[in-house]
User: Fold this.
Amino acid sequence: MVTIKSHREIELMRKAGKLLAQTHEELEKAIKPGMSTWQIDKLGEEIIRSFGCIPSFLNYNGFPASICVSLNDEVVHGIPRKDCIVQEGDIVSLDAGLIYEGYHSDAARTVAVGEISDEAKKLIEVTRQSFFEGIKYAKAGNHLHDISNAIGDYCESFGYGVVRDLVGHGIGKNLHEDPQIPNFRQKRRGIKLQAGMTLAVEPMINMGTYQVCWLDDDWTVVTEDGSLSAHYENTILITDGEPEILTIL
Assistant:
């Protein structure tokens, strides 16, 4: 069941979203060649806790960290490690969530480590823009899969693979709520959007094939062909007008 948030709940989610946006901003500034993904995770957890919040991901279904740190061909759910060092030219996807007074926010960014290739820059930019192409349709009265279709069509026009095994989701008191939000074209229209719905829209886009596989840790998802992958996500609020992006400053 898709929940409609009350005015009070929306205010709490707005606060959760702004604090998570600050977390991402500070992490992006801090990342540099030579850092371990473990250090990135610890810094992210420190920032989240400094706001009096709880990391959403830590111990969620057994996930052992606060920030999912995924490098290059890792799509999502990369487990931070002391022996995994980011290098000049890497792209790093940071997926983070926090709980503020019982309500979750969820957002992801893919960032460059130093100078990266033009191809990697384009992948990051197209992935980010696909989110904004999708939420043009995130209005009360439209259908959920209008968002999915716009994201998928935009990315596929560049020849990219749109991940199908992982999707966006509703969010609120729980990190993952109904509905599921695919990032690729659907045959059905999906539910009708209503003001007060809160959604985590998160394109996961590969430079090559859309196909992915899981590593032996049962968490880390990688591209099947070893191509680069980018991830961009925000928590949004459906309103009677334009959608409100809760996880940007």
